[in-house]
Amino acid sequence: MKKTIYSLRGAALLAMVAAMPVVTACSDDDGEGGGAGEAARLTVVVAEGDGTSPLDEGLRLGMFMTGGDGASVVSAVMTAGAGGQLAVADAITAAMQDGMTLAAFTPADLWTAANYGQAVQFSVQTDQSAEAAYSASDLMMSPLTPVSGGKAALVMEHKMAKVSVHVTDVTGLYDLAQASMDMPSRLTTVDADLVQGTVTTVEGVTADITCHSPGNSPYRASGQAVVAPGPVAAGAVLTSLAVDGQTFTYTLPEGAEWQGGKEYVYSMRLTSEGLVTYDSYVTDWKDNGEDLSGDAEKQ
After folding, report:
1. How many Å apart are CA 257 and CA 189, to the nearest integer?
2. CA atoms of 207 and 124, how far apart (whole Å)
3. Tens of pLDDT along 71-98?
4. CA proximity to 275, closest of 169, 184, 123
5. Rounded to an integer, what distance in angstroms lies between the CA atom of residue 113 and that of residue 130?
């Protein structure tokens, strides 16, 4: 059956902004009257840790709504405001009826009206030192969510893996505030299927990733990178730390299988013998904001 696709973009979407109802990313209250009632009809949050978090301010996400027969598709691109609030296109909320399904995703331009229903290829940024590039590497998708009782609650899930490395200098010889971290030869690319809600890592596509490190101090440095899920071999270099004209590396003693939606945390000391790990663990992906210190030691 041929699909009819409506895309809310450009001038047409801009002209609707003034009339758009505001939808909160986390409210479940029905509210009373226009805006509050519309806000309760559609919610969008992100699965993190043991619960959910509101959308980050400034996050752009795409959304598709399909009819019960799958024959028509409405699309829109939205930006989260303060507190995760979204200005939602009238075409989405006005057309919501039981039996329809919705899906949200970011980056917002990954799927368009032209390729909805197709698997698309996504790659993380190789230089994630800037916040924008680090955030753009975070592929998120919600499952297809049915409209029930005129409402839909979408929960977007992180589909890539996050790796965090915390280093404490115990020698007193280095200024880690000036340090930079790389994660060499990491998997970068997946085939993503919004309809199925799955990602499949493309084997053999690797790159050196420059880590995001916004909060280093003279004695402690932390770096994070978003990478494609997949195996990491024993003996592979986990991280390379460059500081004061020297480079230190740490290799994994055992292999691992990094999974989407998980955070892999490694805590190390910079000693006279180089980088020595003292703790590592796996947890659900959590947004640490600018605080990447984790359980790193403090002087």
Report:
1. 16
2. 10
3. 667 888 888 888 888 776 666 877 888 9
4. 169
5. 30
Q: Which residue has the higher pLDDT, 75 or 161?
A: 161
Burial letters 181-198, b for 16+ CB under 10 A, else e: bbbeebbbbbebebbeee
* Chain mean position to CA 44: 14
Q: Are the C-beta atoms of 88 and 104 separated by less than 8 Å?
A: no
Q: Is 80 exceeded by the pLDDT of residue 20?
A: no
Q: Is the pLDDT of residue 298 over 50?
A: no
Q: Is the peptide bond before 107 cis (omega within 30 degrees of 0)?
A: yes
HSE-up (13 A, CA, CB side) for residue 278? 13
Kindly state the helix (H) or strand (E) to which residue 230 belongs, with its residue range: strand 230-232
Q: 287 or 42: which carries more pLDDT confidence?
A: 42
Structure confidence by residue, pLDDT tens digits, 170-192 = 999 999 999 999 999 999 999 99
Close Cβ partners of 99 (under 8 Å, ≥ 6 residues apart): 67, 68, 146, 147
Rg of the chain over Cα atoms, rounded to whole angstroms, equals 21
In a 13 Å sphere around the CA of 255, the CA atoms on its Cβ side amount to 5
Tens of pLDDT, residues 203-248 = 999 999 999 998 899 999 999 999 999 999 999 999 999 999 999 9
pTM: 0.84
SS (H, E, C) 18-73: HHCCEECCCCCCCCCCHHHHHHHHEEEEEEECCEEECCCCCCEEEEEEECCCCCEE
Buried b (16+ CB within 10 A) or exposed e, 222-246: bbbbbbbbbebeeeebbbbbebeee
